[in-house]
Design brief:
CATH class: Alpha Beta
Structural class: alpha/beta
Shape: globular
Number of domains: 1
Order of helices and strands: EHEEHEHEHEEHEHEHHEE
Low-confidence stretches: none
Largest sheet: 7 strands, parallel
Mean pLDDT: 95
Radius of gyration: 18 Å
CATH superfamily: NAD(P)-binding Rossmann-like Domain
Distance between the termini: 26 Å
Strand content: 15-25%
Helix content: 25-40%
CATH architecture: 3-Layer(aba) Sandwich
Number of helices: 8
């Protein structure tokens, strides 16, 4: 495939480019530091970059509400996503994979501290948005629906949790273990960068039509503790839809398995899980 990757210099972007090139795809990159060094909100530049591509992986974004004013974070993320979707449709691209976030429902970053409506978190979790970044990701998912409905694009919005290289996640887990409640509202979810790249690759070729939001997680949680014990200790007021056994994740990943055929291979606790 000929794939345009926006935000290619970011953590997920680097892993995605490496994986796609490794499996034989031709990759063109677009970001402020890429082979096409432009902003993803630039309509003409995105249109030029996407020409002759079969698919687009859109990862460019300001990935946290503290990385700019609320207006800048929201407008950058929403305009870049809409621009990429529109230009992909105009130039005959059939598939776009874009980075949404576990924060799209607005729970984790909300300054008012709401609890999740339930565990495990899924794609239908009720929203309660209180920050510009989470709002931008929610709008990105709606933009994907519009692009599928209006332009016939197939769009997969992947709700990434905390994504870092495995060694970095191990260090983060040690820090979180000292203050476990700080990641409770994301269910202590994580995914290694290499598994994130595999999810993107699976989304590019999945036999699905239309727009889909798909949650992702490793097969366990960031903390090396039985999942039910973790919930009982640090989230006793969050309802559980079923009892948890072992160290299963608190993100429900059925869509990823059924629609993409994707299961993560790596755990920060046990190494690779095939």
């Amino acid at each position: 495939m000929r794939v345009l990757v926006t935000g290619a210099s970011g953590g997920i972007g680097q892993a995605a480019v490496r994986h796609l090139v490794g499996q034989g795809d031709t990759v063109r990159t677009l970001d402020r530091a890429g082979s096409v060094a432009v902003d993803a909100t630039d309509e003409a530049a995105v249109g030029a970059a996407v020409q002759d591509c079969d698919a687009v992986v859109h990862l460019a974004a300001l990935p946290h509400p503290t990385l700019g004013t609320p207006r800048r974070v929201f407008s950058n993320n929403v305009v870049s996503t809409f621009t990429v979707l529109a230009q992909a449709a105009e130039h005959g691209v059939s598939r776009v994979v874009l980075a949404s976030s576990i924060n799209a429902p607005g729970i984790a970053l909300n300054p008012h501290g709401p609890l999740p409506a339930y565990f495990p978190l899924d794609e239908d979790l009720p929203t309660y948005i209180g920050d510009a970044y989470s709002l931008s990701k929610q709008v990105d998912e709606l933009s994907a629906e519009m692009a599928a409905r209006t332009w016939g694009l197939d769009v997969v919005a992947l709700r990434f949790p905390l994504v870092k290289p495995r060694t970095e996640l191990i260090n983060i887990a040690k820090s979180v273990a000292r203050h476990p409640a700080q990641m409770m509202r994301t269910g202590w979810a994580y995914l290694t960068a290499d598994d994130a790249a595999r999810a993107i690759a699976a989304a590019l070729v999945a036999q699905i039509k239309g727009a889909y939001v798909i949650g992702l997680s490793a097969q366990d949680t960031l903390l090396d503790m039985p999942t039910q014990q973790l919930v009982d200790t640090y989230a006793p007021r969050v309802p559980c839809r079923w009892p948890f056994t072992g160290t299963e994740p608190l993100v429900y990943t059925l869509r990823a398995r059924e629609l993409l055929g994707f299961q993560p291979r790596e755990s920060i606790h046990t190494g690779r899980r095939d």
